[in-house]
Structure prediction request, 275 residues.
Amino acid sequence: MSLADNIFIENSRQILQGVSDAGQNVRPKWDDGTPAHTLRTFGLVSRYDLSIEFPAVTLRRLAFKKCIDEILWIWQKKSNNVNDLNSKIWDAWADETGSIGKAYGYQLGIKHKYPEGEFDQVDRVLHDLQHNPASRRIITNIYNHQDLHAMGLYPCAYSVTFNVMEGRLNAILNQRSQDFLAANNWNVAQYAIFMHMLAQTSGLQAGTLMHVIADAHIYDRHIPIVEELLTKEPRPAPILKINPDVKDFYKFTVDDFQLEGYKPHKFGHTIPVAV
Prediction:
């Protein structure tokens, strides 16, 4: 059975037993203007061994291609414009030109000075994985306080720390906040893909992805949906297939990734979005 399903179930139960923010002044609202309250827990930590399985839940279908499209939009295209994205997931935070401001891909594309020369954050990671994999300084961070005022949304998944041991690429993904039903497996799957991309183009194997969420929450209108998911039986994890011919991080496309044997449960809900 899928290990990712078991982690999702355990974490969901922990959040459902967490603390309610009902009665507090919260920023998110539903479409009808009602405050979007949550059940929440602090410091949710999960480990995924990417050498064992690809962490796609089977309790509901993962939007596999769309989550890859977003990770390429951020890390490969380094874009901050929704017109470069093949989905509508960022439209609520974009301006009339499609820009989300100085957020996400914008931050990754800024060049910084190093002894070896100028690199943006992505190219610095690629350089170190190739030339200095023993480094304990392979870190990205897009939570730039100087530019927060110019961002359509403060970064949620904001920092990644990379580590190479015995030819395995490991990473810690730090996330300040997460809408657990809508985004949990989406974020896990896309950063698993990201690690596979880096590993393949750096001559490494994908190892452990550790996901640290400071505030993991389930919105009030999502609770019945999560409770329904918890009644389903996990199914076998799918197998990830990657085009082995791609050796350049910037050459990957969505079509270079396939899931074999993915048979998730049917999911008959439209998830309401709080913004």
Notes: The mean pLDDT is 97. Helices lie at 3-16, 64-75, 105-108, 121-131, 180-202, 223-229.
